[in-house]
Design brief:
Protein name: Integrase
Structural class: mainly alpha
Number of strands: 2
InterPro entries: DNA_brk_join_enz, Integrase-like_cat_sf, Integrase_catalytic, Resolvase_Rsv, Tyrosine_recombinase_XerCD
Shape: elongated
GO molecular function: DNA binding
Pfam family, one: Phage_integrase
Largest sheet: 2 strands, antiparallel
Organism: Escherichia coli
Oligomer: single chain
Radius of gyration: 24 Å
Distance between the termini: 74 Å
Helix content: 40-55%
Strand content: under 5%
Length: 165
């Protein structure tokens, strides 16, 4: 039997959110090969175990080199934004881990990464969650090409007359 609070949380869950009380874990792809090789060297040199036993569940999991929480990442970003502000740099939107996530996805989409690959990288269960980015992409592409939705009346009349001539 599901407790009523849990059942209600499942029913009112908003798009993209985990039910109350459940922690979201996201994977961050490391695409910089030099950085990855340096991490591998650190792990090998320090003999850091690649797996650990989860004390809570008893299962064997991949070990983390260091614990990174939402707060850790927010602190890093806050420090970077403060340093940028000291140099006179301002941002038009709040800089958060989530805006980085959206930016990463849009850059991958602009680079031509297939939607199914993006879905996997973003950890979306449903392709419809990933397709939201294609709508933004389409609006951006249309704006770049200056799509015109009207024309002078005389041009429209000429075009129609020539078409049937």
């Amino acid at each position: 039997m599901i407790p009523q609070k849990t059942a209600q949380a499942l029913l009112v869950r908003t798009a993209g959110r985990m039910p109350a009380g459940q922690q979201t874990h996201r994977l961050v792809p490391l695409s910089d090969s030099w950085y990855v090789s340096q991490l591998q060297t650190i792990v090998a040199t320090l003999k850091i175990p690649m797996e650990r036993r989860n004390k809570r569940t008893g299962r064997t999991e991949k070990a983390r080199i260091w614990e990174v929480t939402d707060r850790t990442v927010s602190t890093w970003i806050g420090e970077a934004v403060a340093a940028a502000a000291a140099d006179g740099v301002t941002f038009s939107a709040p800089v958060t881990p989530h805006t980085f996530r959206h930016s990463y996805t849009m850059h991958m989409l602009y680079a031509g990464i297939p939607l199914k690959v993006l879905q996997s990288l973003m950890g979306h269960k449903s392709i419809s969650s990933t397709e939201v980015y294609t709508k933004v992409f389409a609006l951006d592409v249309a704006a770049r090409h200056r799509v015109q939705f009207s024309m002078p009346e005389s041009d429209a009349v000429t075009m129609l007359k020539n078409r049937h001539a």
